[in-house]
Amino acid sequence: MVTPGSDSAKVAPDVVAEYTVRALLRTMPAAVPAVVFLSGGQSEEEATVNLNAMNQLKKTKKPWSLSFSFGRALQQSTLKAWAGKQENVKKAQEAFLARCKANSQATLGTYSGSANLGDGASESLHVKDYKY
An example of a Gene Ontology BP annotation on this entry (predicted)? Predict the structure, then answer.
């Protein structure tokens, strides 16, 4: 997703959507069936809201499906709910299901926001100075 740098101010989801789709239209072949996004350091919720905004862009025909991948933006609140404890498995499963439903709705452009997403959903996943 096209987002400001980690030390910059946040922008509205429709701005992220517009710039991301524009960049994809300029560079991504139409024959590619789908583009799946990692969170790129955004919080779970921020990544979901931005994906939703991209899929709500009606004025621009997008030749590919825009979706999510199984990465930190699906796992953070699940792992936080679980905390490695057997007694938290049900809570973790519920957090994972809520996150998956939210991202599924965002893929359709129908996500309405923060639907019982649990702890960790709004925490930034950015790791400063991370090296690959």
Answer: glycolytic process
